[in-house]
Every structure is written in structure tokens, then in C-alpha cells.
Amino acid sequence: MRRRTSETVARRNNGILERIQKLKADHPFWGYRRVWAYLRFVDNLEVNKKRILRLMRQNQLLVKPGLKLKARRTSSHPKPRPTVPNQWWGIDMTKVMVEGYGWVYVVVVLDWYSKKMVGHYAGEVAKSSHWQEALDKAVNRQFPQGVNGHGLHLMSDNGSQPTSLSFMKACQSLGVHQAFTSYNNPKGNADTERVIRTMKEELLWLKEWTSPNQLTRELDLWVESYNQDYLHSTLGYKTPNWFEKNHYASQITQLPAA
Q: What is the domain extent for residue 179?
């Protein structure tokens, strides 16, 4: 026999459920782990993951898994794993339909270590020069004194933009070492593809866009908010900016005294 929930627990659950429903209204693609992380680390609510899972399951608030999207291929080449910020970046592109204008293309540059979006571009065309624009923004942001000699690697797919002669020459001139995903490795640039999915779930899919300028403005704001506020599960539910700054702060404290 299932034990009945006490009135006190039921009242507390109702308060938690109301907060969950508000979060899901703003973030419909959040699963129970991310909802729990927000409640725990932002709202400072002492609550168990299992309770969040149970409440979301009982109220049909869980996200249904997209099993058809799961890659089934395997690769014999392991994905690089950075040990410091600005060691491995990924670059990739997506597109979003703007009513009355057509497609707007979004290029993203991601630091794999901190999950920080270090550069991006949005526009009605996406030639290799526009990919370079996103990369230049990232380099100027992370390496104001110049990137040459810092051992930065850039992972991309085998599309026409990153494999173009002009883009490869630009990378060579900057001192950025290009790498490309193998054809049998769908996860070779998975970190970058995952942040693009987050961008879609948190911004691009939530509105009917009517102006490229509107999309560009809101994308700029969203990128800054993501870097500053987004609790990333891979980072132990820390934000990209915090994780990056904490790494450099820890390096300073480990320096030997003069």
C-alpha cells in the first residue's frame, strides 16, 4: 500500500511545483537535473533530485528523450580533452528562419574547457569570411595581446567554410592550429554542437523571429547571459565565466613565493 503524503509535505511540494512550472515555462527543454541545479544553486533551496524527478514525472513536466537523434556510430579516434582554457576551441554553424527575410545563419566559437562562448556571428549569409569574423571576435576577446604561440587548436567539421583556402590561411596567420572531425566520428565536435542545441532551446526556438536585427541583438544579450549565468552540468553546475576565472585564480595561488 502506498503511503499517503502528509499535508505539510504536500504544501511544500506545491510550492516547489509552482517554482518548477515557472522555470519550465521559461525553459521548456530543461530536464529534472537542470531544474534541480537551478533550485539548489540559484534559489538556494535544499531539495533532493529524486523529489524534483518525482514531481516533474507526476505532472508530465519531463522532457521526452529524442532517441532517433542519438548517434550510433563509433570512432577509433578519441576526442581531444583540454586541460586548460583556450587550448581547444570548436566552431560550428546553425540557422534560424526569420519571417519575411529567410534564413539567418549563426556561427559559434566555444572554448571546450570552460564551455564559454568566446565568439559568434549572425547574418543573412555565412561565407568563410563570416566564420573568420566569429573567430576574430573570439581571438580578440581571449587573446588581446595576440594568439600566436599560445598553442590554440580549433576543431570544426569538413564543411566548405572551415576547409576554404581563405579560412585556413587566416588560421595559419593567427597561429591557430586547425583540426577536423573524422567522417565516422559524429561526436568529434560534440561540445560545440551541444551548446548550439542549448542556444536553440533557450532562445532560437522560443520565438517567431521577424527581423534579423532583432535576432542579432537578442543573441548578443543571450550569449553574455549564458557565459555569466548558465549553470553547466559538466562544470559541476558552475557558470562558464566562473569556471574560467576560478582556473586562473587557482593557478596564481599555486605559484611559488618569490
A: 88-248
